[in-house]
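Re: duplicated header lines in exported structure tokens

Our pipeline writes sequence and tokens for each protein into one text file. With two proteins the header for the second block appears twice in some exports. Here is an export where it did not happen, for reference. First protein block:
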Amino acid sequence: MPQRFEITSVTHEIGRIAFDWEDTGGTYHVYKDGEHVYEGTSTDFQDTDFTPGKLYKYTIERQQEGMTKDVIVMQTTPLSMEKNADNPLQSLVMTTIVAKSQVALSWERMKDVDQYTIYRNGEELAQVGANRFIDRDFPADEPLTYSIYCERPIAESEETFNTAKSVIAKVFGIFYPKTTEKKASVEGFTMMKSIGSVHDLLKPVEDTPTPMPVTHWHFRYKTFLEDDILENPNVLSPNRYFKGDNRHFDPESAAYRTSVDIDVDYSRPGSPLTFKKDVGESVAYGLDKKIRERDTASDEGIVMKQLDHGKGETGFFLEHAVGNPLTTAPDINYEVQAVFRENGTCDLTGYHDQSPDHEIYITKGKGSRWIPIHQSRSEGLAFMTEVTAFQYWRFSNLG
């Protein structure tokens, strides 16, 4: 008889999620988002009642003589027929399995990607060719955050203009000596999964107190320039330099190019979302580094739309396009789609240019600390042009 109580396979089909586990003896109970959906001795279960794109948590308990002996927790999303070509990570199926003996991650394979780098709490663990990873040496009593990173050339992208964009990006890389052709023409993808401590996750359902609803979330997205003064990549412009924000990643900093705050409060009558946006002042210097002019760009290109979701959850779609009011230059572009739930889970995904610096944070509950969910350093002002590759990211949590 197997010694490890683990899930052995997970199958995703349109309209169906099925999984099997090792038969280590006893009676098995399956819970879906806390609701009891199966009891018996069979070691398999299938689900056909779900909403595409939504995260679901399954708990499998092994019982003997009325006592829970072992627990497995799995979180996954259904397979979707509709794929978002603008952001491949948005509809990507991701599965996280937590057991006493393993934390297993798997994800829908991405087209033309042959290597993934796995990190845990910021430390590199492995590079894998398969679209799965099993961690058997993890601390069970502390929160874990796993990151999966991969790259691919724009020419392999699902975007309709991929080949033309790739050629332009390569030319861009050649003509800007402070950049590289590779950075300009390679897309980066980061998938992050935040997991509560394994010890707490694997408690029997009957021993787990009903969690208090998370009625308040806060989302913050800032763009900034790390340097104090930056050289204008347009050498023909009389504005030879621009003032930067002279800082590193910091959710509380008052220095930024743009700032967006979205507050989610389920106790608020009517719409639970409030939206604040702001644009920092732009300052240009001449060749002598004396101020030539200053102005503040319009915030009209920052638009938030509330998305319709079921009871106990809400979401938004955020678009951002803000230019430099002092010179002809591309906009700072990014998009975000997010869902926040009263049960404490969230799922956020987006993409952005490789410049300037981007930082995204959330809080879970009033008065809680900022949780960094994405931070990206600028590759230089020249990378704000749309002919260069985007950076894509996704963040979700379990626990």
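Second protein block, exported in the same file:
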Amino acid sequence: MNIFDEMEKYGHEEVVFWYDKTTGLKAIVGIHDTTLGPALGGCRMWPYKTEDEAITDVLRLSRGMTYKNAAMGLDLGGGKSVIWADSRTDKNEALLRAFGRLIESLGGRYITAEDVGINADDMAIVARESRFVGGLKETSGDPSPATALGVLEGMKAAAQMVYGSPDLKGKHVAIQGMGHVGSILAGMLKDEGARLTVTDIHPEESRARAEELGAAWVEPDAIFGVEADIFAPCALGAILNDETIPQLKVRIVAGSANNQLKEPRHGLELMKRNIVYVPDYVINGGGVVNVADEFQQGGYHEERAYARVRQIGRQVGEILNRSREDKIPTQDAADQMAENRIHTLGRVQSTYLPE
């Protein structure tokens, strides 16, 4: 892989590689765009098969954060970090503190928080070495409930367009991934009266939760073919592709996973099949909205943060309407709205103001 070619392709400002010989830490930070402010995005710990896979993930995720933060109306740019390791076996205090030293060395250009494989307790260890950490228990805490709430609001907006009502009672939702966000979302959907079918690649941890919710369980590969109203991808990305899209038997795709489309053309393919795809970086923006509230004047206020999260449904509705009116895929409509904000505010902020 030619790193500079990939940076040019995705439009990145900076990619940082960090190796700590004492702990064996291998980490990559992608800072995509800081037009609107410092880059904010979580840290993912994952046992990538190859170095190229890790690089591709951090590039795609950090670019997605630029668009997500812009779409959420935040004064923050986009970034992401990955730790190349298995969170189940490799995580320890020394490794996390070494990662904190990396974050501190960037001087505030990048603010980290939790993502897959990392939790609030881990972030507390990272924060012992860096000031630039969000999502701590004593501030905004676990972003998963806010993310799940945003997904729920986005689902309701999509249901309004497709079924003429935001009511999810009686709707059948197939959830892929019963991790932090997926399991919370499943509980919210049960409270709404929805019927659930769920799966996860770690059944030993998830089947009990499924039984508790009265949800049907299927094997991971079978979730794509479940006949339902809504498919909610809440695991890893690139799951909407040439193999899976033909299996879908739903009218709506709306979930928390990042980078759900393997390639942009798959958004067009969903549109051709009359499946409404809710752009992932919009519907899953609740977590970053919640974390970003920490950096408002006066510090974190939960009521203010969650009021903003509930606006995600309105934003999703605007995007779906633009998609329908302009006859373009929903992710293109979302990109246009985010890019317009970055371009407009970038020009405003370029105006010289004397100190």
